[in-house]
TrEMBL record:
It comes from Streptoalloteichus hindustanus. It is a multi-pass membrane protein. The chain crosses the membrane at residues 163-191, 203-225, 237-256, 276-300, 312-329, 336-355, 361-380, 387-405, 425-445. Residues 47-290 form the Threonine/serine exporter-like N-terminal domain. Belongs to the ThrE exporter (TC 2.A.79) family. This is Uncharacterized membrane protein YjjP, DUF1212 family. GO terms for cellular component: plasma membrane. Keywords: Cell membrane, Membrane, Transmembrane, Transmembrane helix.
Length: 476
């Protein structure tokens, strides 16, 4: 009896302990992940980050810059578990809210792109205030509305004059005199006004580039055939100046930066766009050359003049003027104009010195662009100027306008396919060397903190826009 009583007591205590454990256990599923604000705040912060990324992407910033900036904004407002995906003209941001709530995903498409470096600088200043905790999300929305709806800081005729001044600087850089510089400026001003009219009529940019290339080449050949150009003026330099102006608006630096930083889909999209825009320019130039040959115009294939030490002061001055004019045409701030001019002067000084010493043009271009990116990365952020402005403006005088025209002339006029393709490959090599050199220079100039995860390192550099430091994100 005693043994049976003990067994019953043991079973009773065991059942009681089991029921106590069941009663003490939580009735719901365990919740993992951060405690986030309410839905209204989450949607507001994501919309703010998307609109900031849209301004950057529309201004030519790389996908890595856009990603890091948006992560910094979302992290500053208490959304640390966010992921950003930039694919060419589409931006997607997703906020993970643990297992308690469904994630929130927002998408924005960049439908129009234009260079307004004043707007870019203002948005970056707003981002610095956000990451420093000086403005609330509501205040940031109001300020961003004001920035995105504001008119350009300069009238449109100022931009046209700046494009003309840029063409004059390129003509002087290539060895042309005052008469050639004035002709190049007038032709470029006409191209800009015609392009504006075509843009109002929503003509695709491929055809706008073709019209620009045809105008630059056709006017130069027409003036030369009618004897209106002085004997010492080379019409090829007028065409080369126009080609540089038309090439300067393409997002070459952004495409190479995306490829280097691992955003291959965006890089492929930008590369395709670059190819299409360049093909439009080539089409216009080739059509004008063939029309000139058919009409009996004498088209000469101009070789570049050898660089001499005595030409260095003029090259430096012309490079500074060209870069400053490009920045002005892109609506940069007055401070950015000075920095861009200094970058152009430094780049041309390096390029000129290396070519005088006999260096290859591709190597000289890469070295000059690396110096521009390095100096821009060091100086631009101290002066509150986006490094993207300095980088793009600084390499503009080095764009291969004359080399491109020589290659096309050899193909069309000289009927020398081998020489023409070789020259065009040199032009392509110069363009890629310029873009890669700028990205490398910015990477060398940026202090990357140790102890970060691989994702943080990838988002930290090279950076041409947005906050220098990546957001502090706990990595999985």
């Amino acid at each position: 009896m005693r043994l049976a009583q003990r067994a019953r007591n043991a079973l009773w205590w065991r059942a009681a302990a089991h029921h106590a454990r069941v009663a003490a256990a939580p009735t719901g599923q365990a919740v993992y992940g951060p405690r986030l604000p309410d839905d209204t705040t989450v949607h507001s912060v994501l919309d703010l980050a998307l609109r900031i990324g849209e301004v950057q992407l529309a201004s030519g910033a790389g996908a890595a810059d856009v990603t890091a900036t948006m992560l910094a904004v979302t992290n500053a407002y208490g959304l640390p578990r966010c992921e950003v995906d930039v694919i060419f003209t589409s931006i997607t941001v997703c906020c993970h809210r643990g297992t308690e709530a469904a994630p929130v995903t927002s998408v924005r498409v960049v439908r129009s792109r234009s260079h307004d470096y004043t707007r870019l600088a203002s948005v970056e200043r707003l981002v610095r205030q956000i990451t420093a905790g000086h403005v609330t999300a509501a205040e940031a929305h109001v300020e961003l509305d004001r920035l995105t709806t504001a008119a350009h800081p300069y009238p449109r005729w100022v931009a046209t004059t700046a494009w003309a001044g840029m063409a004059a600087g390129v003509a002087a850089l290539l060895g042309g005199g005052p008469v050639l510089a004035l002709i190049a400026a007038a032709v470029t001003a006409l191209i800009d006004r015609v392009g504006r009219i075509l843009n109002r009529r929503a003509l695709p940019f491929f055809f706008q580039q073709a019209v620009g290339g045809a105008l630059a080449t056709g006017i130069a050949l027409g003036l030369h055939a009618t004897g209106l150009l002085p004997a010492h003026v080379r019409p090829s330099l007028v065409v080369a100046a126009g080609i540089v102006v038309l090439l300067s608006g393409l997002s070459l630096v952004g495409a190479v930066q995306d490829a280097i930083t691992g955003f291959n889909v965006t890089a492929a999209g930008r590369a395709m766009e670059l190819t299409l825009m360049s093909a439009g320019l080539v089409t216009g130039v080739v059509l004008a050359l063939r029309a000139g040959v058919a009409l009996g115009a004498r088209v000469s294939i101009t070789d570049p003049l050898p660089a001499m030490p005595s030409d260095l002061p003029l090259m430096v001055a012309a490079g500074a003027a060209t870069s400053a004019c490009f920045a002005l045409a892109s609506y940069a701030t007055p401070r950015a104009l000075l920095v861009a001019g200094a970058a152009g002067a430094a780049g041309l000084a390096t390029y000129g010195a290396l070519t005088v010493l006999g260096a290859d043009v591709v190597i000289a271009s890469a070295a000059a662009a690396t110096l521009v990116g390095f100096c821009g990365g060091l100086v631009a952020r101290r002066l509150r100027v986006p490094p993207l402005v300095v980088a793009v403006s600084g390499i503009t005088p080095l764009l291969p306008g004359l080399t491109t025209y020589r290659g096309l002339s050899q193909l069309v006029v000289g009927n020398d396919a081998g020489a023409g393709l070789s020259t065009l490959l040199v032009a392509l090599g110069i363009a890629l060397a310029l873009a890669a050199g700028v990205v490398l220079g910015e990477y060398l100039a940026q202090p990357v903190r140790t102890g970060l995860g691989r994702l943080e390192r990838r988002l930290a550099g090279p950076r041409l826009s947005g906050p220098l430091r990546p957001a502090r994100r706990p990595l999985e």
